[in-house]
C-alpha cells in the first residue's frame, strides 16, 4: 500500500513537471527551447510527456478552429475587399512601372555623372594618399639625390653626413617600400665607395705634396729670409720714424746693410736675396700653397666610420716613406748650389707640411712622431752634407752653402725644430772653408808675385800717392816732402798682398756671420786662419819666388824691402781684426798674429839667396882669370876679369843701399869669401909655373 502511495506521489510530481515544461514551451522563444526539451529527454517519462504534448496540441487546434469559425465572415469580406484592391494595385503597378521607366530614362545621365563623380572621388582619394606617401618619400629621394650629387662633386664628408641622416632619419619612415630596401642594401656599398674615394684623394694629395715639397720649402725659406732681414733692420735701427716701411724700402735697407758689412764684394754670395720681380709681391704662406682639405676630409670620414687608427697608421707610414726619399740627396748635389738648395727646400717643405698637420688636426700626428722624423732627418742631412761638402773646393760655393744651411736651420727653428747639430756641423765646414780659402789665396798670391815687376812704385801725382797710401799703411815724412815724380820703396805686390790679406780676413768674417758665435770665438777663428795664411800659404809662395832659378839680385833685394814693410804692417792687421771683431788684443786667450815671423823668415831666405848668388857670381868671375904665367914684365893694369868683378860688385852694392842695415850686413858677408880666393889663385899659379918677377907684379897689381 505504501508502494502504491509512493507511486501515486511520483506520478503527481511527474505530471506537475510535464505541465511546467509545456508552459515553458508555450511561453518561451524557440531559440531557448533546447534546455527545456533536454530535461524531458534526460528523464524516463518522455512517452507520457509526448502524450500530454499531443493532448495539448489537440486542445489548441480546437481553439483555433473555434476562432476561425467565429471570424469566417470577416475573412470572406476581407478577401472580397482584397480582390477589389488587386485591380487598383495593378493600375498602380502599371503607373509605378511607367514612372520608373521614365525615371530611369531621365536618370541615365545622372547615373553617368554620379559614376564619374565616384571615379573622381576615388581618384582624389588615391591622389591624396599618393601625395601623403610622396610627402614621406620625396625627402628620402631628395636626400639620396643630394648624396649622389655630393659624391659626384667629391664632397665626401658632407656625403657621409647625408648618408647618416638618410639611414637613421628618413629611411625608417618609408622602410616598407621596395626602393627603400634597395637603398638600405646600398648603404654599406656607398660607405665603402666614399671610403675608397677619400683614400684615393689622400693618395693624390700625398703625391702632390711630394712633388711640390721643394716649392713649399722655397716659400718657407723666403719668408724666413725676409723675417731675418726685418729683424736685422729693427735691431740696427730700433727707432724708425714714419711708421711702417714698405716692403721695397725694407729690402733696399737690407741690401744697403749687406753692402756696408761686406766689403768683399767678390766673395759676396747673394744667394739669399729675393729676386727683384718678387719684391713688390707678398710671399704667400707655405701652408697657403697646399690644399689640406683631402687630409681633413679623409680623417673625418675615417673617424666617422670608426677606422681612424687605420687612417693614422697609413698616413704616417706613407709620410715616413716620403721622408726617406726626400732625405736621399742626389749624387751630383755638390756640383752646384742649386742642388743643395733643392735638397733643403724639399726637407723644409716636408716638415712645414707635417708641422701644419700637427697643429690643425687632433692626433693625426703627434709631437713624438714629428721628433722621431726630425731626428732621422737631422742625422741623414748632416751625413749627406759632410759627404758632399767634402768634394767642394770653391770657397764661394762653401760660403754660399753655409748661408743656405743657416737659412735652412733658421727656417726650421722658426717651426720649433732643434737645429743645434746643424750649427755644430757648420763649425766643421768652417775648417774646410778655411782650407779652400788658403788654396784660393795661394793662387792669388802666386799671381801677384808672378806679375810683379819688383821695382819701386813710381808716383807722378798726389792722387796716385794718396791712393797707394790708402791701400797700404805707409808713412814717410821724407818721401812726402819730395817733389813729384817720386817712388815708394816697395813694389806693387806689397799693397796687393796687404789688401788680399784683408780680403781673406773679410772672407773668414763672412763665414762666421749668423753662426751664433761670440765675438771672442769669431776673433779667435779669424786670427788662427790668418796665421795659417801668413805662416803657410804666403810663406810658401815667397819661398818659391825666392828659390826660383831665374830670380835676380835686384828682385831679391826688392823682396827683402817688401817683406820689411809687410812686417811693419802686421800691427795694422792686428788693429784691423780688432776693429771688425771688437775684441781687444789684451783679452785673455787672444791669439797673436805670426806675420812678423813669416816675413822675417822670407827676408832671411832672400838674404841667404843673395849671399849664395853673389858667391856663385864671384866664383864665375874668378874662373875667367887668365894669366901668362911665363911673362917677365909686370902689367900696369889690372886683369879684365877683376875689372868686371869690381864693376859688378859696385853696381850690386849700390842696390844694397836701399836695404835695411841688418840685411846690408848680411849681404856684405860675401866679401870675406873673395879675400881667400885670390891667394888660392896665386898659390895655384905658382905651382903650375916657375917664379918670375913679371907674374908676381901682375898678380899684385890685380889685387
UniProtKB/TrEMBL annotation:
Q: Which InterPro entries match?
A: EXOC6/Sec15, EXOC6/Sec15_C, EXOC6/Sec15_C_dom1, EXOC6_Sec15_N, EXOC6PINT-1/Sec15/Tip20_C_dom2
Query: Biological process GO terms, please?
Result: Golgi to plasma membrane transport; intracellular protein transport; vesicle tethering involved in exocytosis
> Exocyst complex subunit EXOC6/Sec15 C-terminal domain: which residues?
421-680
**UniProt keyword Nucleotide-binding, yes or no:** no
The domain of life is: Eukaryota
Residue runs in coiled coils: 50-120
Keyword Coiled coil applies? yes
Q: Which residues cross the membrane?
A: none
Where is each Exocyst complex component EXOC6/Sec15 N-terminal domain found? 52-221
Ordered alphabetically, the record's keywords are: Coiled coil, Exocytosis, Transport
Q: Which Pfam families does its entry note?
A: EXOC6_Sec15_N (PF20651), Sec15_C (PF04091)
* A GO cellular-component term linked to this record: membrane
Name the family the entry cites: Belongs to the SEC15 family.
| Stated role | Component of the exocyst complex involved in the docking of exocytic vesicles with fusion sites on the plasma membrane.
Q: What is this protein's record name?
A: Exocyst complex component
What species is this protein from?
Apteryx owenii (Little spotted kiwi)
Amino acid at each position: 500500500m505504501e508502494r502504491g502511495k509512493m507511486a501515486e506521489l511520483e506520478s503527481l510530481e511527474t505530471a506537475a513537471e510535464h505541465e511546467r515544461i509545456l508552459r515553458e514551451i508555450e511561453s518561451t522563444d524557440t531559440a531557448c527551447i533546447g534546455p527545456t526539451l533536454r530535461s524531458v529527454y534526460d528523464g524516463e517519462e518522455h512517452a507520457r510527456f509526448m502524450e500530454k504534448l499531443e493532448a495539448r496540441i489537440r486542445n489548441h487546434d480546437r481553439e483555433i478552429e473555434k476562432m476561425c469559425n467565429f471570424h469566417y465572415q470577416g475573412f470572406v469580406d476581407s478577401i472580397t475587399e482584397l480582390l477589389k484592391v488587386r485591380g487598383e494595385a495593378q493600375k498602380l503597378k502599371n503607373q509605378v512601372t511607367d514612372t520608373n521607366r521614365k525615371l530611369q530614362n531621365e536618370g541615365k545621365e545622372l547615373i553617368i555623372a554620379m559614376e564619374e563623380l565616384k571615379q573622381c572621388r576615388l581618384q582624389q582619394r588615391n591622389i591624396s594618399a599618393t601625395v601623403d606617401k610622396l610627402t614621406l618619400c620625396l625627402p628620402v629621394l631628395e636626400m639620396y639625390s643630394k648624396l649622389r650629387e655630393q659624391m659626384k662633386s667629391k664632397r665626401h664628408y658632407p656625403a657621409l653626413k647625408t648618408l647618416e641622416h638618410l639611414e637613421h632619419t628618413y629611411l625608417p619612415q618609408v622602410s616598407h617600400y621596395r626602393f627603400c630596401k634597395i637603398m638600405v642594401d646600398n648603404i654599406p656599398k656607398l660607405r665603402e665607395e666614399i671610403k675608397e674615394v677619400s683614400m684615393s684623394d689622400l693618395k693624390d694629395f700625398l703625391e702632390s705634396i711630394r712633388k711640390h715639397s721643394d716649392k713649399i720649402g722655397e716659400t718657407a725659406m723666403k719668408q724666413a729670409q725676409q723675417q731675418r732681414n726685418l729683424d736685422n733692420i729693427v735691431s740696427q735701427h730700433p727707432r724708425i720714424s714714419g711708421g711702417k716701411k714698405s716692403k721695397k724700402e725694407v729690402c733696399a735697407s737690407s741690401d744697403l746693410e749687406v753692402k756696408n758689412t761686406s766689403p768683399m764684394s767678390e766673395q759676396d754670395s747673394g744667394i739669399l736675396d729675393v729676386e727683384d720681380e718678387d719684391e713688390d709681391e707678398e710671399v704667400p704662406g707655405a701652408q697657403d700653397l697646399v690644399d689640406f682639405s683631402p687630409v681633413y676630409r679623409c680623417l673625418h670620414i675615417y673617424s666617422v666610420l670608426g677606422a681612424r687608427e687605420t687612417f693614422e697608421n697609413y698616413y704616417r707610414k706613407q709620410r715616413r716613406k716620403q721622408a726617406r726619399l726626400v732625405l736621399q740627396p742626389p749624387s751630383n748635389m755638390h756640383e752646384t748650389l742649386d742642388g743643395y738648395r733643392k735638397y733643403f727646400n724639399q726637407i723644409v717643405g716636408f716638415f712645414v707640411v707635417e708641422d701644419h698637420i700637427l697643429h690643425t688636426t687632433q692626433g693625426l700626428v703627434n709631437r713624438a712622431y714629428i721628433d722621431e722624423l726630425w731626428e732621422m732627418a737631422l742625422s741623414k742631412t748632416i751625413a749627406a752634407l759632410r759627404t758632399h761638402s767634402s768634394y767642394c773646393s770653391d770657397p764661394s760655393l762653401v760660403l754660399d752653402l753655409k748661408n743656405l744651411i743657416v737659412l735652412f736651420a733658421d727656417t726650421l727653428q722658426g717651426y720649433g725644430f732643434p737645429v743645434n747639430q746643424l750649427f755644430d756641423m757648420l763649425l766643421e765646414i768652417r775648417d774646410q772653408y778655411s782650407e779652400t780659402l788658403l788654396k784660393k789665396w795661394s793662387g792669388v798670391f802666386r799671381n801677384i808675385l808672378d806679375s810683379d815687376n819688383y821695382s819701386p812704385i813710381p808716383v807722378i801725382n798726389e792722387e796716385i800717392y794718396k791712393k797707394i797710401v790708402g791701400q797700404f799703411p805707409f808713412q814717410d815724412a821724407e818721401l812726402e816732402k819730395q817733389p813729384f815724380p817720386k817712388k815708394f820703396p816697395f813694389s806693387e805686390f806689397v799693397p796687393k798682398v796687404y789688401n788680399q790679406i784683408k780680403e781673406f780676413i773679410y772672407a773668414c768674417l763672412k763665414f762666421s756671420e749668423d753662426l751664433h758665435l761670440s765675438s771672442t770665438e769669431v776673433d779667435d777663428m779669424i786670427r788662427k786662419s790668418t796665421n795659417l795664411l801668413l805662416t803657410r800659404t804666403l810663406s810658401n809662395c815667397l819661398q818659391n819666388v825666392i828659390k826660383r832659378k831665374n830670380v835676380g839680385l835686384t828682385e831679391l833685394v826688392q823682396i827683402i824691402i817688401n817683406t820689411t814693410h809687410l812686417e811693419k804692417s802686421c800691427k795694422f792687421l792686428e788693429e784691423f781684426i780688432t776693429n771688425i771683431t771688437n775684441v781687444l788684443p789684451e783679452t785673455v786667450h787672444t791669439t797673436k798674429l805670426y806675420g812678423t815671423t813669416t816675413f822675417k823668415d822670407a827676408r832671411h831666405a832672400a838674404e841667404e839667396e843673395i849671399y849664395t848668388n853673389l858667391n856663385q857670381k864671384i866664383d864665375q868671375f874668378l874662373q875667367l882669370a887668365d894669366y901668362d904665367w911665363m911673362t917677365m914684365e909686370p902689367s900696369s893694369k889690372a886683369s879684365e876679369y877683376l875689372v868686371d868683378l869690381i864693376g859688378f860688385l859696385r853696381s850690386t852694392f849700390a842696390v844694397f843701399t836701399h836695404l835695411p842695415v841688418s840685411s846690408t850686413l848680411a849681404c856684405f858677408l860675401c866679401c870675406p869669401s873673395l879675400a881667400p880666393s885670390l891667394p888660392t889663385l896665386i898659390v895655384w899659379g905658382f905651382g903650375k909655373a916657375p917664379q918670375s918677377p913679371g907674374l908676381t907684379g901682375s898678380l899684385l897689381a890685380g889685387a
